[in-house]
Amino acid sequence: MSAMSSDEEMQEFSDDNDNFEDEFDEEDPDFGVSQDAENKKKVAYDISYKVYEPTDIQRQQDDMIDEVNMILNLRKEDVAILLRHFRWNKERLIEDYMDRPNKVLEAAGLGTNVTGPPRLETIPGFMCDICCEDDADLETFAMKCGHRYCVACYRHYLNQKIREEGEAARIQCPADRCGRILDSKSLDILVTPELSGRYKELLNRTYVEDKDALKWCPAPDCVNAVECGVKKKDLDKVVPTVACACGHRFCFGCILTDHQPAPCSLVKLWLKKCADDSETANWISANTKECPRCNSTIEKNGGCNHMTCRKCKHEFCWMCMGLWSGTRHELWTYAFAFYLARNNLTAIFEDNQKDLEMAVEALSEMFEKPVTDLADRKLKVDILDKTSYCNKRRIILLETTAENLASGGWDFIVDLNPKGASAAAANTRG
């Protein structure tokens, strides 16, 4: 297993916002070169996180197994089973094992009744209890619990568990009521290298899922994991947006794509409101509305929420019935503003939002000009200036929103606490 040698294998980003600089639950080995976000100035909506490749994840497990093994002096395979049982909380494992070792071993599926190291054997007169084969040269296998079966039945059992059920960390002995857990060394004796590789992939997945500070990148075919120290209780004060090495940006809190500046709880309410508006049982109410200008009945049978009345050409939003030019439901800034209470801070936010929208629309109009016009030197300069302005306004909007979110400056018309949030509250401004 080779050591990391480039910044591409792991990325680390840091944040100067002391309110949410939560330490990771456990110290992690240094697997790569730390990056300082290209020495750029940190902004309020940046958070600390690391990106790990599968080799990094495996190395974390191996290092922790070695560390605990030096203290408990057990087989590495057994230490791995113990750590998985304790969800990789090495401190609690060591403490509990020192107090009551036999009870810990039994609970983890290791047991205290052992018969020797696992190996393939040919035993005269043996008959497999599963397939009833009793050939003289029948190869058999038994874990330390002593329950023995023919190799063919064992391999079929393991293939079903790993390939069909996706199990790896808690594969038990095939014997009825035996809770002995299969270790990696026993599995390697029985299965093909291909199945063993799948087994290790599943173990890596279990490791990430067991740790609250680690999550898989949701991008299709991406095998990286991201570590972030933001706690679940802080998700109403920070939007933990992370960027995987594959380029996918997503929210660490809810795994949805980047939805800054709206907190996860508001996003959940907003998505439910959108779903309710489009899937209501009352078809007429959900699919027909009157034009706000001429009162003509308009039917919506699909498509986006940008509606144009055929009679008077009035453009409006299907969801809020407001002018389409003044709304952008596809932007999370709108969903954020939708749940804000009316006050001076909200008015400032909406002014900044409108200014950014107008700048982006102006930039889009520049790009829609004929190709011959785009070759004009002055237009190129104008496009660069407008692009720079849009980026600055975007940063200002996100930064001020994040600062007020962290300090509790925003007043919402719904409860951001996921337990107290009511879906019905989403309709208070509908």
From TrEMBL:
- Superkingdom to which the source organism belongs: Eukaryota
> According to the UniProt record, what class of enzyme is this?
transferase
Alphabetically list the UniProt keywords.
Answer: Metal-binding, Repeat, Transferase, Ubl conjugation pathway, Zinc, Zinc-finger
Cite a single Pfam family from the UniProt record. UBA_ARI1
The record's InterPro entries line, in alphabetical order, gives: ARIH1-like_UBL, E3_UB_ligase_RBR, IBR_dom, TRIAD_supradom, Znf_C3HC4_RING-type, Znf_RING, Znf_RING/FYVE/PHD, Znf_RING_CS
The Gene Ontology biological process annotation of the record reads: protein ubiquitination
Q: Which Gene3D superfamilies match?
A: 1.20.120.1750, Zinc/RING finger domain, C3HC4 (zinc finger)
What GO terms are given for molecular function?
ubiquitin protein ligase activity; zinc ion binding
Q: Which segments cross the bilayer?
A: none
Q: Which SMART domains match?
A: IBR, RING
Residue ranges annotated as compositionally biased, kind Acidic residues, are 1-30
Q: Where is the RING-type domain?
A: 124-340, 128-177
Task: Extract the PROSITE patterns matched here.
Answer: TRIAD, ZF_RING_1, ZF_RING_2
Does the keyword Magnesium feature in the UniProt annotation?
A: no
Q: Quick check: keyword Zinc-finger in the entry? A: yes
Region Disordered, residue ranges? 1-37
What chemistry does it catalyse, as a reaction equation?
[E2 ubiquitin-conjugating enzyme]-S-ubiquitinyl-L-cysteine + [acceptor protein]-L-lysine = [E2 ubiquitin-conjugating enzyme]-L-cysteine + [acceptor protein]-N(6)-ubiquitinyl-L-lysine
Q: Which E.C. number(s) belong to this protein?
A: 2.3.2.31
Q: What is this protein called?
A: RBR-type E3 ubiquitin transferase
